[in-house]
Design a protein that fits this description.
This protein has 355 residues and is of the alpha/beta class. The protein has 16 helices and 10 strands. It has 2 domains: 203 residues, 3-Layer(aba) Sandwich (Rossmann fold), CATH 3.40.50; 146 residues, N-(1-d-carboxylethyl)-l-norvaline Dehydrogenase, domain 2. The chain is 54% helix and 12% strand. The strands form 2 sheets. It has an 8-stranded mixed beta sheet, with helices on both faces. The protein has a two-stranded antiparallel sheet with strand order 6-7. A hairpin with a 3-residue loop joins strand 6 and strand 7. The longest helix has 24 residues.
Length: 355
C-alpha cells in the first residue's frame, strides 16, 4: 500500500510539473540576462500577452528598462511596455512559471547557483547557453547536476535555433527548437512560448542541440574571416561556401560521436542556426572572424565587441574534447591555430581548403 501511495504521489507531482503553465492563466516568464537575445525574447513574449520580468547586473540596462521601458544598450528603440525589471534574482523568479537563462556560457552556471534557493518545484527552466562546463559536461547537464545536488526536480529544456536578435525583436518570422529528454515537457514549452512570429518546435535531443549550438559558432567564426578579407579582394562567397561546407561536414561526422542524434544536424538547431550565424551581419561570431580577417588581433577584436563571441571559447572547448576522446576534428584544430598558435590568415586558408 505504501508503494502505491508513493507511486500516485510521484505521478501527481509529475503531472503538476507538465501542466502547470497550461493551467496557470497568464504565463509568467523570468528572463535572466538582458543582452540582445534575452531582450528580443522578452519583447516577443510581452507582445503575446505574457507577464515578463527581466534580471540584469548592469546598472545601465536596469535604469533604461525601468525608466524608459527600453534596453538602450543592446536593442535601442525597442519598446518593452509593461516589462518588469530587477537586479535581484529572488524578486525576478518568485511567482513565475518559466525561468529562462539568457546568459553567456562562461557565467550562466554561476547565475544558476544563485537562483537555486529561490526555485519552486513547478518552475521549468530554459537554457539558452551552449558549451562545456567543468568536467566535460554540457551546460544543461551541469544545470541538472546542480538541481539534483540540492534535491530539486525542475525540468530543464534547451532552446536553440536561427534567432538573430534584432530580427526576432522586430517581429520577423523566426523558428527554433525546444528540446528536453521528456517529450511532454518539450511539447508543452514549444506550445506555451510560441508567438505569432516565433515558431518553436519540440525535440528530444538536448545534448545534440547544445552541441550544435556551440559548434556552429566555430564555423561562423571561420566564415567571418573570409568576410574580413573581402576588402582587399582575397575573400569571396565561393571561399566562404567552401569553409561553410568543410565545417558543417566535420560537425555531421564528429558530433554524433559526442552524443548528438544524427537528425539534429538537419534541424533549426543544426543547419538552420549555423546558416544564419555564419551569414548574418548581426552574427557576433561571424563578426569576430571578420575582425581577424581585417587584421585585428584576438585581444583587439574581443575588446572592440560589445557582445561576447562564444566561438572562441567553443573552438578551444571542442579541440580539447575531441583530442581527449580521440575524435578527429581537423577543422576545429585549424581554427584554434588561427586563434592561439600564430597561424597566419593565408596559412589558415590553405589548411582549410585542403579538408
Amino acid at each position: 500500500m505504501d508503494l502505491v501511495i508513493i507511486a500516485v504521489a510521484m505521478v501527481q507531482r509529475y503531472t503538476r510539473n507538465i501542466n502547470h503553465v497550461a493551467r496557470s492563466g497568464m504565463t509568467k516568464v523570468a528572463v535572466l540576462g538582458l543582452g540582445n537575445f534575452g531582450t528580443a525574447l522578452a519583447k516577443n513574449w510581452l507582445d503575446a500577452g505574457m507577464e515578463v520580468v527581466g534580471w540584469t547586473v548592469e546598472d545601465e540596462v536596469y535604469t533604461a528598462v525601468r525608466d524608459k521601458s527600453e534596453n538602450t544598450k543592446y536593442l535601442p528603440g525597442l519598446a518593452l511596455p509593461g516589462m518588469g525589471i530587477s537586479m535581484q534574482i529572488e524578486e525576478t523568479v518568485t511567482g513565475t512559471d518559466i525561468v529562462v537563462f539568457a546568459l553567456p556560457s562562461a557565467v550562466v552556471l554561476d547565475v544558476v547557483e544563485q537562483t537555486l534557493p529561490f526555485l519552486q518545484p513547478e518552475q521549468i527552466l530554459i537554457d539558452l547557453a551552449k558549451g562545456l562546463a567543468p568536467g566535460d559536461q554540457l551546460i544543461s547537464e551541469a544545470i541538472e547536476a546542480k538541481l539534483s545536488a540540492v534535491n530539486l526536480t525542475n525540468k530543464v529544456c534547451v532552446m536553440m535555433g536561427p534567432t538573430i536578435a534584432p530580427e526576432l525583436a522586430r517581429g520577423v518570422y523566426t523558428s527554433a527548437l525546444v528540446t528536453s529528454e521528456d517529450a511532454d515537457v518539450a511539447a508543452n514549452m514549444a506550445q506555451t512560448l510560441s508567438t505569432k512570429t516565433l515558431s518553436l518546435a519540440a525535440g528530444t535531443d538536448p545534448r545534440g542541440a547544445e552541441l550544435w549550438g556551440a559548434f556552429k559558432n566555430v564555423i561562423a567564426l571561420a566564415c567571418g574571416v573570409v568576410d574580413g578579407l573581402k576588402e582587399d579582394g582575397r575573400g569571396g562567397d565561393n571561399l566562404k561556401a567552401a569553409i561553410f561546407a568543410a565545417g558543417y561536414r566535420e560537425g555531421v561526422q564528429v558530433l554524433p560521436a559526442l552524443g548528438a542524434q544524427q537528425e539534429t544536424a538537419f534541424s533549426a538547431a543544426g543547419i538552420g542556426d549555423l546558416f544564419v550565424t555564419a551569414t548574418s551581419p548581426h552574427g557576433r561570431n561571424r563578426e569576430m572572424g571578420e575582425r581577424l580577417g581585417k587584421g585585428q588581433t584576438l585581444v583587439e577584436a574581443e575588446a572592440a565587441m560589445v557582445m561576447v563571441s562564444e566561438g572562441v571559447r567553443a573552438a578551444r572547448m571542442f579541440n580539447a574534447l575531441c583530442s581527449a576522446q580521440g575524435a578527429a576534428a581537423p577543422f576545429v584544430g585549424i581554427v584554434c591555430g588561427l586563434l592561439d598558435d600564430g597561424t597566419s590568415i593565408e596559412e589558415f586558408l590553405v589548411q582549410v581548403m585542403k579538408l
